[in-house]
Design a protein that fits this description.
The structure is a homodimer of 400-residue chains. By secondary structure, the first copy, chain A, is an alpha/beta fold. The first copy, chain A, has a domain of 203 residues: 3-Layer(aba) Sandwich (Rossmann fold), CATH 3.40.50. Chain A is built from 13 helices and 13 strands. In chain A, the strands form three sheets. Chain A has a six-stranded mixed beta sheet, with helices on both faces. In chain A, strands 7-6-5-8 form a four-stranded parallel beta sheet, sandwiched between helices. Chain A is globular and about 75 Å long. Strand 13 of chain A pairs parallel with strand 7 of chain B.
């Protein structure tokens, strides 16, 4: 029998895919590390296979693979020159089947669903997680339910709907919907793999392991990651905690979770030294993908951050836009505003510290800018006009 | 000194980055294979390094790398079940920095530009090539000119403009603009890396080599690829011609170039046995990315296809839409209509043949559906409505 464990109550409970929250304190539970010695299988082609010992799976079904993982870690040379920062890298998670980090989580959650014989899955999301779940649901041939917010844009509806899941636009409070999905799931045998699903969290570990291998078997000193529900941060931290436990590294990186000022419940709690966050009443930020007023994994994230000397920052929309611009103009990386919080956070943090030159810093770029074109004001883009006959002069005057 | 060669005139001319067309017949020239024995370096991390012997580069500048390549080759199991086709794979080129195959070409063309000391580059494109060139231009820190069609949508303008190139919207005939860009380039020292640029073409070879390695050092029997200017098809064919020349394979795959019926100058020429195509007057297809009425590499493509027992097909917009739907609903792959021509072409072709079961077929998925959301009619997407209180009933009735 498999178990999940509650970090707060320090207890284990039998795995229940329809409710993975602690029966006592209602915090999300996590998949415990196995007692056995674990190793890597670097020769394997399919990325998850390399990390199988570290995943909550006893085997892999290759037919569920959409090609996730193996994303590049790119050094940001021009940014480094411009800012005199040390070695900064982007771990670019937009190189994934649906162009966001969510595919890492979906890949493992779907493996689990299929291994356990489930035929119906679902998610509550309007963004990256919705398209990821719909795509994996299509590949696996499972009946897939995607519960969307009432005001979801046509654009987003199309990019999820193209995979032909059961799309339901739900009127009402989105936080309540999150909770309600689990009871509905139990009734109809639908495994709702929402943001802090324990198998999603284990899936995010793969990104951490890849960073370790890409840095030649070393951990970076810092990892900056956008912070929303907390699931992604937890998974990344657990990767390095696993690496430490197995003796591959001596020290876990300093994790910096970054929130947008317009919706920063965890940054607020962290700044005031609280161990529990308070729900935000009104969220307002350009970084929609991390605009989460009541993050389900918020308290665990606060706890894990504190236990491992991490920190949580917030950044303004102006800082986010400036960072998005720098990544696009200096490094050719066009990311979502939510992803640009990582660079904005690093720039803010670096005002108060001096990094040693050998320090490695990783920014986790979580999602593609193509998914948030509406957040770019057209006034930011400068366009010249020319006719064929005066084109030569136009270019001449640009070069003057 | 480096040379380019004309396949038609069978002559070599000194390399001139500002004009790579044959001085005699004005067909695009290609980079000749070196006489030396070539090998692969499979242990290297940066994909281009593995193929360096086969590329027109003597060394690589890692600082130009955006993470291109290493894209997945995914078996389409559910499609195979549904259709009784043999082994069909998708080579998913949307796992690239700007989500299309164009990055393969840009990666090599930029290496060449920097190696030759050029500081200004440009391209004539409104689509995938524009964002790719702008992103690589940003990473390389080169002055980058992107010449757009007058009616380029705001959406596309934003996704290119975010990298801050010199964007010029040009009024006038787009075919003329293509030709004119080279004379302007010579005047101002701007290397216009357009669709059939010989270094772009060499860059596309990397995709072919990866397919060979992913199929355990074998060539597939068939490769289906969308056919527009011809540059991509030429590059892919040249990869397998190189593999054959070096003794890695006995037989080059059968290449099937696929065009949209609304703009099929090469399919028309192929069907009537002609060696030269005729320009199309009015192009009209949903597959915008391959809607090219006057393909610069059309005649070479016809020649290479004939010399290597390939073929050219055309498919209707209805077939394209149906294929796009099948890829999204059965395989979780959301691609541009242009990319869906590959499956549409395979389905059309398979009506008249029976494949042996051991046959491997590769569809090259060239670009992301996110870049062509407007081509999806919202009537194709079915959305249920529910309130929080009747959600349970709504799901119940869906499952009935």
């Amino acid at each position: 029998m498999e178990f999940l464990e509650c970090l707060f109550c320090q207890k284990k409970y039998p795995l229940d895919l329809f409710d993975s929250f602690c029966p006592d304190c209602r915090e999300p539970m996590l998949y415990p590390s196995p007692p056995k010695k674990r190793r890597f299988y670097p020769g394997k082609n399919y990325p998850l296979e390399r990390f199988l010992d570290f995943l909550p799976l006893s085997k892999l079904d290759a037919s569920l693979n959409l090609g996730e993982g193996n994303t590049p870690l790119v050094k940001l040379n021009r940014l480094i020159e411009r800012t005199s920062l040390p070695n900064v890298f982007a771990k670019n998670e937009t190189f994934n089947p649906t162009y966001s980090f969510k595919d890492r989580g979906s890949a493992v959650a779907f493996q689990k669903a299929v291994a356990m014989g489930l035929e119906r899955i679902g998610t509550v999301s309007t963004g990256n997680m919705a398209s990821s779940t719909a795509a994996y649901g299509a590949k696996a041939g499972l009946k897939t339910f995607v519960l969307l917010k009432e005001d979801t844009s046509l654009e987003k509806t199309l990019s999820v709907g193209i995979h032909n899941p059961e799309l339901i636009r739900v009127k009402g409070d989105y936080g309540e919907l999150f909770t309600k999905s689990f009871s509905i799931g139990r009734k109809y045998n639908i495994y709702f793999m929402n943001s802090v699903d324990p198998f999603r969290v284990e899936g995010y570990k793969a990104t951490g392991f890849e960073i370790f291998f890409q840095l030649n078997h070393r951990a970076p000193q810092f990892i900056f990651v956008p912070l929303s529900s907390g699931g992604h941060l937890m998974g990344l931290m657990r990767a390095f905690l696993d690496l430490k436990k197995e003796g591959f590294i001596q020290q876990v990186p300093i994790f910096v979770g970054v929130q947008a000022q317009g919706c920063a419940p965890l940054a607020k709690a962290f700044a005031s030294g609280k161990s529990k966050f308070e729900r935000i009443k009104k969220a307002e930020t350009i970084a929609h993908a991390i605009s989460n007023p009541d993050p389900a994994g918020g308290n665990i994230s606060l706890r894990m951050i504190k236990e491992n000397n991490g920190m949580i920052l917030d950044v303004s929309d102006e800082e986010i836009i400036e960072a998005q611009k720098m990544l696009a103009e200096l490094e050719g990386i066009f990311c979502q505003p939510a992803s640009a919080t990582t660079l904005a956070g690093l720039l803010k943090f670096s005002k108060n510290v001096k990094f040693k030159t050998r320090v490695n810093i990783v920014l986790v770029i979580t999602g593609s800018g193509l998914k948030a074109l509406k957040s770019i004001e057209s006034s930011r883009i400068n366009v010249h006009q020319a006719s064929l006959s005066d084109l030569e002069n136009t270019i001449g005057s640009i070069l003057k």
